[in-house]
Design goal:
By secondary structure, the chain is mainly beta. Helix content is about 10%, strand content about 65%. The strands form two sheets. Strands 1-2-3-4-5-6-7-10 form an eight-stranded antiparallel barrel. A hairpin with a 2-residue loop joins strand 8 and strand 9. The chain is elongated, with a radius of gyration of 23 Å. The relative contact order is 0.20.
């Protein structure tokens, strides 16, 4: 019984090691690269609760369609689990509608379809946080789902064309009739932006 179990475990270990070696021969384990996108914000909302300069309280809520163009750029580093799944950390700079800019950091999971050495489609999702760039830096949250097409330039070099929908939650500065409200007078300054983006990326 023990001998049979030992033989089975040895066989499984050999098979796993062999598969890992074949994978390593075909798929680079670690990846890195850059990504650039044009982002068009098309919907926004906010909730501001603060004390106006005149001394009274203001509770302002709004959700509306709104267009604003932004650019975004990211660097990324990741790990190929196999020929079809990749996990990567993305960090960069982006505009967040007409609120302010930010430095988001997120974890992205990507699923590829088809032969790993051929051109192929993929889908991805990411989730993360970051810091807003404004008079009083605060945290932000980001989420994204997207798809794209990968051109295989070589075993190590890939060119990606991507499209995505992005949601970002942040804390905008409050501009009240042309006057910015001091942070000490603000109880709530939450806001969100929904955007569509098109971009290009390169991965090594």
């Amino acid at each position: 019984m023990k001998r049979g179990l030992f033989i089975l475990l040895t066989f499984l270990l050999i098979c796993t090691t062999s598969a890992a070696r074949r994978r390593d021969c075909n798929v680079p384990r670690f990846t890195y690269g850059a990504e650039w996108s044009y982002s068009a914000a098309f919907y926004k909302g906010y909730h501001f609760y603060f004390i106006a300069p005149e001394g009274y309280r203001v509770d302002d809520r709004q959700n509306k369609a709104s267009y604003c163009s932004n650019g975004e750029a990211y660097l990324h580093a990741g790990y190929n689990i196999d020929g079809y799944w990749n996990l990567s950390i993305y960090a960069g700079y982006t505009g967040i509608g007409d609120y302010h800019a930010g430095i988001p950091v997120s974890l992205r999971a990507t699923r590829y379809f088809g032969d790993l050495m051929a051109d192929r489609w993929f889908v991805y999702t990411d989730l993360g946080s970051g810091i807003s760039i404004k008079s009083r830096p605060q945290e932000l949250l980001s989420a994204r789902v997207g798809t794209g097409y990968r051109l295989s330039m070589s075993r190590y070099t890939k060119l990606d064309f991507i499209a995505a929908i992005r949601f970002m939650y942040t804390h905008p500065d409050i501009d009240y009739y042309g006057e910015f409200i001091d942070a000490d007078s603000v109880s709530s300054n939450s806001g969100y932006i929904v955007s569509a983006s098109l971009g290009i990326g390169i991965t090594f």
